[in-house]
Amino acid sequence: MEPKQIKEGYLVKKGTVLNSWKVVWVVLSDDGVEFFKRKADSAPKGMIPLKGAVLTSPCQDFSKRALVFKLSTGKNQDHFFQATHLEERESWVKDIKRAITCLQGGVKFARKSTRRSIRLPDTINLSELCILMRDQENGVKEQKLEKEKRVYNHCFTGGTVVDWLISKDKARNRPEALMLATGLLNEGFLQPAGDVSKQGVEGGAVSTVLDEPNALYYFADSGFFCEGYSSDEDVIVKDEFRGNIVKQGCLLKQGHRRKNWKVRKFILRNDPAYIHYYDPTKGDEYPLGSIHLRGSVITAVEFVPDAKRYDVDGNLFEIITSDETHYFLQAATSEERKEWIKAIHTVSKTGK
């Protein structure tokens, strides 16, 4: 009987030989995880059996990489994967853990109910705590702060985190709040921004989060951005990063010059109406480029010029900007393509 396919999509994976991080197409079945160099490839680069496997999330083996999880085989071979945002990592981790449990128990894979209990757990769940902190109304307020002669967007101070934890009765005092914030940092939910906070992480103190006005931090998947850099492809306007994140994830993008296709992480903001794209192997601090969506046209397409040369086919869509620049993108599935088109279309009509 063929293995049941459970989930598929782009993830960043650490190489087992060269130790480099590259984007791969990952397919989760009920008995293993396969990863491919490209989605169109018929043969995988490797397969990780789930029998006897152990999943560790979050994984803290890499201080400069957030949202990493580790899958260790029964033969003690470690495989490291990195997601592009928190919800994506939690989704992969949940399904892989469930697949391992089902395999061990000899039962068919079935997702558990997603209904949430109103009653909070007795012990603090850092993932749930981060979701509360990210709440637009009652969470930690992201700001635009100028420190060390640079401007940091979508960030906050260590003191702000401490104050919030105490005000929401998550901690009884500042030392306790600092230890809780350190847990969030250690598990990759928070990231240091700027020299002061990075030195705190590298200092080896018990509490790596600093309760200081010059110590800045940001949420791992917030689209944090530090002004004062040069872009590889487009000029980035500072005000582009003001809006809230509407949708984010990996898409295949056709380059304008060489017409080659590469996987990019896209972050869609609503006001102003911009979508930025990044190299998913390098983080979200420096975008490769941006697309101004106001007045643009978004449509599904079945054919892209020069696409056949690169074995790219299916789930394609096009963004035509107000200045008639054409961007060709490919989603992982037809449903994902519909979601992206709908979200981008809405932003193009309502955002500035």
Please give the radius of gyration in angstroms: 21 Å
Order of helices and strands: EEEEEEEHHEEHHEHEEEEEEEEEH
Which class do the helix and strand fractions yield? Answer: alpha+beta
Percent strand equals 25-35%
Tally of contiguous helical segments: 6
Which percent bin holds the helix content? 10-25%
The biggest beta sheet is recorded as: 7 strands, antiparallel
Low confidence ranges:
113-122, 229-237
Instruction: Tell me, briefly, the overall form.
Output: globular
In round numbers, the mean pLDDT is 82
| Overall strand count | 19
Lateral strand order in the biggest sheet:
4-3-2-1-7-6-5
- The span between the termini is 53 Å
Pfam families: DEP, PH
Keywords: Acetylation, Phosphoprotein, Repeat
Domain PH: 4-101, 244-349
Domain DEP: 136-221
Overview of the molecule:
With 352 residues, the protein is of the alpha+beta class. The strands form 3 sheets. Strands 4-3-2-1-7-6-5 form a 7-stranded antiparallel sheet, with helices on one face. A hairpin with a 6-residue loop joins strand 13 and strand 14. Helix 3 crosses helix 4. The N and C termini lie far apart (53 Å).
Task: Give the helices and strands, then pairings.
Blueprint: E1 5-14, E2 21-29, E3 32-36, E4 46-49, E5 54-56, E6 68-72, E7 78-82, H1 86-105, H2 126-133, E8 143-147, E9 150-157, H3 158-167, H4 174-186, E10 190-193, H5 195-202, E11 216-219, E12 225-227, E13 245-254, E14 261-269, E15 274-278, E16 289-292, E17 297-301, E18 316-320, E19 326-330, H6 334-350
Antiparallel strand pairs: 1-2, 1-7, 2-3, 3-4, 5-6, 6-7, 8-9, 9-11, 9-12, 10-11, 13-14, 13-19, 14-15, 15-16, 17-18, 18-19
Helix pairs in contact: 3-4
